Amino acid sequence: MTSAPSEPSVAPAVDPDCVFCRIVAGEIPSDRVHEDERVIAFRDLHPQAPLHVLVVPRVHSRDVRELAADPELLAHVVEVAGSVAAEHARGDFRLVFNTGESAGQTVFHVHAHVLAGELAEGEL
Ligand code: 5GP
Ligand code: ZN
What's this model's pTM, rounded to 2 decimal places? Predict the structure, then answer.
């Protein structure tokens, strides 16, 4: 009797073609300002404001619409954004989730942009 190879019952948490999965895994370096068991936060490569940090869940999902299926994780992203802005800026911040290609999303692993201070030209 042959047995079929076991299939994962859920989508894999890590996508080897996803740049943010590779940053989470440490395969691509990043300037991390926070990490815990559920999210990491690191400085954007092309900052649009004096503080521009991305808060990224470790588990891959496409965008904030998918992330909303896990309200606790979504709330944790917002909490981490607040603590990053408190620690690295004056506390107030903008929180941006570009969602979908025509809205400017270029990395399809959900991330929150935390922006504090004056925005650069061509703001998000
Ligand atoms: P999106 O356009 O998808 O909302 O945002 C993607 C963001 O990720 C952009 O602001 C871009 O500068 C940033 N980004 C893309 N690749 C890297 C990377 O390898 N390292 C870091 N630190 N930021 C990245
Ligand atoms: Zn990913």
Answer: 0.89
